Amino acid sequence: MSSPYLSDDCIYYILKYLQDDRSTLFNCLLVNRLWCRETVTLLYKNPFNQLSYEYNKKSKIIFTFILCFDKAEILRFKNQLNQYNININDVNINDIINEPLFEYSKYIEYYDYLVINRIIFFWFWEYLNIKEDHGIVREFILTFHQSNLHYNIKSIPQNFSSLKSLSLCDINLKPNKGEVLLKSIANNCLNLRKLEFSKGSQIPIRIKKIISTIIQKQNKLEAFKIFVRYSLLSYIFSSLEFQKHSLVYIEFVTISFRDISFENLITLYNLKYLNFYNCDGLSIDQCKILNFASFKLKELTIKINIWNDKVTSSIIKYLGESLQKLYFHGDLTILIIEYLSLYCLNLNNLKITIDPEIVFSLIPYFKNLRISNLLLYIIRNFTSDEMMGNFAKNLKFFDVKEISIQFLSDFQYTIFGFKHTILL
């Protein structure tokens, strides 16, 4: 009895239903050519997923993508091995003669270079006993990424039109390299909901203009995060005004606000979440214009910034009326607590990271805070019985429904202090 005929569309939907069941998909490769072809596109959509834990499969995936190297890339890898006096027979590089059945790289849709780097590190250590800081590892990683992103870079115009989230992290901004990529993004990537940009070095004016164009051309940008050690805000702020109808989240990381006006920022009338992390250069005079902000914040985060308590208090004064959640990490003072009591009358949740000696001395001043939940992250693990006793006695000052305390060791504090997440 012959098996029933299945249309191509039916086969496709069957395979798509199985796309998260990789072991079953591998079996589907053996059915026939059609099943094999359609299955490969699903298997290699996210080929590195979970491989950071499946050590026995790491070598296979690296070998598979080496097969996809073109002749120039194969020759380059051979020369690198010879340059470092590494026996090429150990990795069977000489056996790469025939082209692979499929161009696997062009099916990739998810590409996390950090995960892939870890897999490559393991591969070199497992097969060549070479550590990750060896020169050939760094050179191979560049070749590997360039080879596998080749198809994606070529297809940027059609792929970027549906992209919703984009992180540009320390991108190579040399002419004809990263600049070309940024221009392609500016022309074709118009539907982002989240955009993140970070750069550790000076940014040329021409690049600032391209970044501004990317922001301006989005149809409905909702979240924006910028991490730049050098000034970029004069360009960014003027561009963000183009997104005032949709932007709800902004995070500033390691930004200098020196000589920067909030004139454009206050026009973002839908803004609900605002974060300042490790920033500096902000003055009281610059904060005054926040009194005319068109937005009503729900959440405000002020973490490890390099300015005095008067600046922090000014931000709280002008933006505190609508606040429901506040996270503060820095030098807590009586002035800041008083401003929280005066200007944050709708505050429900207050989260503070603080030194134990400071928090226990300031507890009496918390009595006027109108909050439901207080979460204290107390730095350092050592607190005396006397401190805890005084804290318990002063609980009567708190008109709070719930108090949570977490003590952070020095290691936990380091990790905690540098972790930041965008949540909409």
Map the helices and strands:
Blueprint: H1 8-17, H2 22-28, H3 33-43, H4 55-67, H5 71-83, H6 113-128, H7 135-148, H8 150-154, H9 156-159, E1 165-169, H10 178-188, E2 194-199, H11 205-216, E3 223-228, H12 233-240, E4 249-253, E5 273-277, H13 284-287, E6 299-303, H14 309-319, E7 325-329, H15 334-343, E8 349-354, H16 356-362, E9 373-379, H17 385-393, E10 402-408, H18 410-417
Walk me through the structure.
The protein is an alpha/beta fold and 424 residues long. The protein has a domain at 44-152. Helix content is 41%, strand content 13%. It contains 18 helices and ten strands. The protein has helices spanning 8-17, 22-28, 33-43, 55-67, 71-83, 113-128, 135-148, 150-154, 156-159, 178-188, 205-216, 233-240, 284-287, 309-319, 334-343, 356-362, 385-393, 410-417, and strands at residues 165-169, 194-199, 223-228, 249-253, 273-277, 299-303, 325-329, 349-354, 373-379, 402-408. The chain has a ten-stranded parallel sheet with strand order 1-2-3-4-5-6-7-8-9-10. Helix 15 (334-343) links the parallel strand 7 (325-329) and strand 8 (349-354). Helix 2 (22-28) runs antiparallel to helix 3, helix 10 packs parallel to helix 11 and helix 14 runs parallel beside helix 15. The longest helix has 16 residues, at 113-128. The radius of gyration is 27 Å and the shape is elongated. The termini are far apart. Residues 411-424 have low confidence and may be disordered. This is F-box domain-containing protein. InterPro entries: LRR_dom_sf.
